[in-house]
């Protein structure tokens, strides 16, 4: 099954790599947690369609259509419950950041190569 990225996503500049450089790993995760807390349904403890629609303007996403919001939820919803828990949200944010994903792949490749060199 092919992954679908909301069409409106292409309109946004990817600030996640800049945040990662400035904040470091722990700081970036903290900011992602803050973003999750802005979008979460306080009663359910997850991001639902309704909470995403209601709170998305705080993150500059007010122009996204209901279809775009549903696509974002579907893209990140690994357990199939129709909502995003904190882990699913953080993974989705990384997946939607091509530059950060590329950097992660490069670091992983470098670590694997170094491990192989240590085995010899």
UniProtKB/TrEMBL annotation:
SUPFAM superfamilies for the chain: EF-hand
Cited Pfam families: EF-hand_8
InterPro entries named among the record's database cross-references: EF-hand-dom_pair, EF_Hand_1_Ca_BS, EF_hand_dom, KIC/PBP1/KRP1
Keywords carried by this UniProt record: Calcium
Ranges where the EF-hand domain occurs: 64-99
Gene Ontology molecular function terms on file: calcium ion binding
Top-level taxonomic group: Eukaryota
PANTHER family listed in its UniProt record: CALCIUM-BINDING PROTEIN KIC (PTHR47319), OS06G0683400 PROTEIN (PTHR47319:SF6)
Protein name, as recorded: EF-hand domain-containing protein
Species name: Castanea mollissima
């Amino acid at each position: 099954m092919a992954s679908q990225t909301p069409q409106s996503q292409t309109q946004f500049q990817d600030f996640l790599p800049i945040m990662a450089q400035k904040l470091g790993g722990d700081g970036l995760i903290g900011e992602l947690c803050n973003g999750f807390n802005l979008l979460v349904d306080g009663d359910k403890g997850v991001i639902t369609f309704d909470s995403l629609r209601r709170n998305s303007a705080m993150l500059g996403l007010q122009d996204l259509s209901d279809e775009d919001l549903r696509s974002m939820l579907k893209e990140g919803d690994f357990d199939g419950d129709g909502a995003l828990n904190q882990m699913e949200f953080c993974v989705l944010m990384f997946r939607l950041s091509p530059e950060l994903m590329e950097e992660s792949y490069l670091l992983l490749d470098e670590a694997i190569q170094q491990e192989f060199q240590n085995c010899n």
